[in-house]
Amino acid sequence: MNSDKILFKLHAEMCNSMGHPIRLETVHHLKEQELSFSELAEAIGVGKSTLSRHLSLMVNNGILIQRKEGVNVYYKIASTKITTACALMREILIERLKSNIDIVSNVD
Fold first, then answer.
1. Does 2.60.40.10 match the CATH number of domain 3-79?
2. Contact, 95 vs 56, CB < 8 A?
3. Which sign, positive or negative, has the C-alpha torsion 48, 68, 22, 94?
């Protein structure tokens, strides 16, 4: 397998790792600060086992970094480029939605 194929495969795996609303919301909450597991669970409003599963996947795929301090586990974004990529996709979606609204508003 050539290096481009390997890179495309890794790129797809990274995108799949972000392909869930809970994971995207997690990145949103962590974009400016490190948070504990409990803080994330409260902010996102999901069960602990559900959040744990998503966080584990994101840590394993290099999206998040975790550190333990006593009994607490804290999470932060592994690279600011991750939040930049998410922000760009969000901007594209907002532009698309606005475009759709403009089209619908011009229908007789």
1. no
2. no
3. positive
5-64 pLDDT, tens digit each? 999 998 998 999 999 999 999 999 999 999 999 999 999 999 999 999 999 999 999 999
Q: Dig out the tokens for 41 from the structure.
A: 């669970």
Tell me the whole-structure pTM to 2 decimals.
Answer: 0.84
Q: Where are the domains of the chain?
A: 3-79
- Residue 26 CB-density burial (10 A; 0-12 exposed, 13-18 middle, 19+ buried): buried
Q: CA-CA distance, 23 to 41, in Å (whole number)?
A: 12
